Every structure is written in C-alpha cells, then in structure tokens.
Give the backbone structure.
Amino acid sequence: MHATALQPASSGADWGAAQTWQWRNLSCHWRVLGDPCDPAIVLIHGFGASSSHWRNNAGALTAAGYQVFSLDLIGFGRSAQPGLNHGFSLDNQFWARQLEAFLEEIVQRPAVLVGNSLGGLTVLTTAALRPSLVTAAVAAPLPDPTLLSPLPKQQSRWLGRLKRITVTLVCRLLPLELIVPLIARTPLLRVGLQGAYQRPIRSDKELHKLIAQPARRRTAARSLRAMSVGMALRSRAATAPALLQRLKNIRNAPPILLIWGRQDRFVPLMIGELVRSQHPWVELKVIENAGHCPHDETPDLFQHELLHWLDRNLGGASAPGNGHQA
C-alpha cells in the first residue's frame, strides 16, 4: 500500500499549509490553500487575531477558484513580536510594507486583498502605496478615528515633539506586562470578544483559543506597546482619509469595497456610510445580523457579497489578466 499524503484542512483554525518567511530579520507566519494556478487572494486579520481567524472562509474561497493566502502581521499570531527597543514603529504603514513584500516574495503576483478591521486599514494602505500589486481591496470594516476627526495638515514642530514625548512616556509607563496576561487568562477576554460579535460566542472554544494564545506569549506586551506608540504617532499620510484621497488620484487604481456588519459596536456603520458619501467610487455592502467580524460570524453572507462584487468588478476568479496597473 502507498501512503496517502495528508491534504491541508480547508476549515478550522489550522486551515491550509502553514509556513514561515523571514522579512527584515523578523519571522512571519503565513498559510496557503488552493491551486497555485488560480488567482491569488490574501486575507489579513484584525487586531488581536491571526490567519486562523479566516477559519470559515479559506475553503469557500478556494472552492470559488482562488488560491488563498493569509499572513500573520508582525506583532500578532505566530509572527515575531518586537518592541520599541528593536527600532520598529508598528503602524499600518509598517504592516503595509510587510504585506507588499509578502506579495512580491511569496505570492509573486498581484492579488485581491481582504482585511478585517486593522487588516482592512492595512489593505487600504497597501493599495495606496503599491496599487500595481493589488487587483482589488476589501476592508471589512475600515477602522480609523481620523475618518471622524482628520489630523491637521500642518502641526508646529514643538507640538509634534511634545506629543511624541507624551505618547511614548504614557505607553512605557502602562503596566502592559500585567494587563495583557490578565486579559488573556481571565473571562475579560471573552467579554471583549463578545463585544465584537452579534451572536453568542460562549461555546466557541476555538475562537477563544486562537485569540488567547498569541496574547499569552511573553513578548505580546512589548509588541502592544510598540503598536500603541506607532499608531498614535503615525503621519497624516498614513491615515484613512489621506489614503482614500491618494487612491482617488491614482489612474486605474484597484476597486475598493467596504463590508460592514450592521450591528458593529466597535466601528459603527455610520462611519462606512460617511466614507461612501465622501467617496462615491467606494462601494459599501452591509451584512445583516453581524458585528465587527462579519467574515467569521456570518461567513456565507460575507462570501456571497465578496464573490459577487469580485465577479462584477474583475470578471470572477477564472477571468484572465484581472490585475490592475498603477
């Protein structure tokens, strides 16, 4: 008898074939599922999550004709968790550069990018910085406080210096080494997770585990501190309003879709509607009976909207030459 090779799982937290890639001397964890001859789609997780959070989507997207990739952003999942002392500013521009390198070195072709929450902001940033690598960009949803209160176009040097000193000092003084383990190892984590979902998640042990494990790593607190500083001090050019304006001015920019859970308590639907009113070229789809994670909470509806939109804008996964050029 010949041994039968085990096929990668198409669902569950351990879906796909897991691999590691080195970028800037940092270890990056990623997953892949599907035929290398199919068009590529890259799934980017939200804050506190990882590639495992696409457990209910990878198989369906593969069946629809895509090769599905997912990357753990630096600081999350099983990827490296550097701190401020390592010289990295962990913000959406940094993660976009990581994703850009992933597309060039691992995916090796333009791809559809789909991101949940922080992943959505990372996807939008990547599309604005390297549109030639992105065939379409989907943010589900798009979180950024500057969508409601944009940063000023100019700021005095001393105010900028004072802000940097204050933010860095506060983040260094916060006892995150005590706070993060407390949240990760107590019912506080489940309470926070429930806020992101419309449906009850008490019995979803897999969800709790995939969120808790990265937060329990000894390097999690230092990485959270680096993220807090990086996101608070990012430039105006890295904010969603500036990125959307940049995309608007790019000839043949990739199409942009926002997907929002109607019951999203973290990033209310009104923000998506505001973006849509200010940028009519951006499409908005609303998922009923879903919160902040529509891809995981209502995967069938999420995939229906996503694939229908991709079919309409790109001609479907089987269409040849569906890339866009900057």
User: Anything to note?
Assistant: The domain at 17-154+236-314 is CATH 3.40.50.1820 (Rossmann fold).
